[in-house]
Design brief:
By secondary structure, the chain is mainly α. The protein contains four helices and two strands, in the order ααααββ. It has two domains: 33 residues; 68 residues, Arc Repressor Mutant, subunit A, CATH 1.10.10.10. Strands 1-2 form a two-stranded antiparallel ribbon. β1 and β2 form a beta hairpin.
């Protein structure tokens, strides 16, 4: 009987550790879902990339805007919460492609970023 209790206690400890591991994975996945439209567990696939959202927001702005304004506009327009640390690298890549221009501390669409230039 004692051997059986020891075996079951070991199995219980293994299962508890696995439950903790799964709970941590769920927390990580839930946190990541906040960064993508359709991430409210509704099963809707993300329809726009951050790059595409930036292009739309910059086109709608009509004049250079800052990153904070971009973040707010993406939240309002697409319901997407995008971290500043995600936007900056994308803007640098877009700058290299001529899709955006850096004007002081603000950004605007470049010639290659306008739909008619494509």
């Amino acid at each position: 009987m004692l051997a059986r209790i020891a075996t079951l206690s070991g199995e219980r400890a293994t299962l508890v550790a696995r439950v903790d591991e799964i709970a941590r994975a769920i927390e990580v996945e839930t946190a990541l879902l906040r960064y993508f439209p359709g991430g409210d567990a509704d099963g809707t696939p993300r329809t726009r990339t951050i790059r595409a959202m930036l292009k739309e927001v910059l086109a709608e702005a009509g004049s250079p805007i800052g990153i904070r304004q971009m973040i707010d506009a993406m939240q309002a327009r697409f319901g997407a919460t995008v971290a500043r640390t995600s936007i900056s690298p994308i803007l640098r890549k877009m700058l290299g492609r001529g899709e955006v221009e850096h004007v002081g501390d603000k950004w605007q669409l470049g010639q290659a970023g306008h739909p008619e230039a494509s």
